[in-house]
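Contributing new records

If you add data, match the layout below exactly. Sequence lines come first and carry their own label; structure lines follow with theirs. Keep one chain per record. Anything else will be rejected by the validation script.
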Amino acid sequence: MASRQGGRRFECSTRGAIAAGRRRLARLLLGLSLAMSATAVPVWIADRKLPALLCLAVAFVLWTTWRMSGDLDVLWLEVDAETLVVQMRRRRLRLPLLAPRARRLTAEERDHTARLASNGMLVAGTGGFDSHLLGEFNLHASDLANAVLVETGDSRVVVTPDDPAAFLAALDGRTAPGAGALYSPPR
């Protein structure tokens, strides 16, 4: 999909372990928020104003946490001649594409990344990690099945476009000065 600035846009749909974790987190936070709100009513009726207000404050914090939990969800990626843009809900990250190298992650690397970014219940879609397989990298993911490692100078980032093959082709087809050749994953 083309964008207004002349770059090429790649959607990032949330699926897989990351989507399941988001659903679990939403159920947990909203459930606790509703429980605290429901608890505040009988406590208020029992003329215990301060504990009731505390219950409502905790409910508000839980609800706000739920609202903010998706702020770093990746919406799309955009590639132009000079930059890779990672568009999140509340933030836009621009990475200069100076002699980039990019490749799909192998199945072993994807599984390792999922374990690395997981706490057992949730798989993080965004964060900085240091791995014995991939080294130090930043993760901006929506579906680890489509994971692509992009290396540009000092930065290494794992992104997850819905169409990794087209994304790699767009990176390879750039006309920026100093554009490097892409490489494929080891087999």
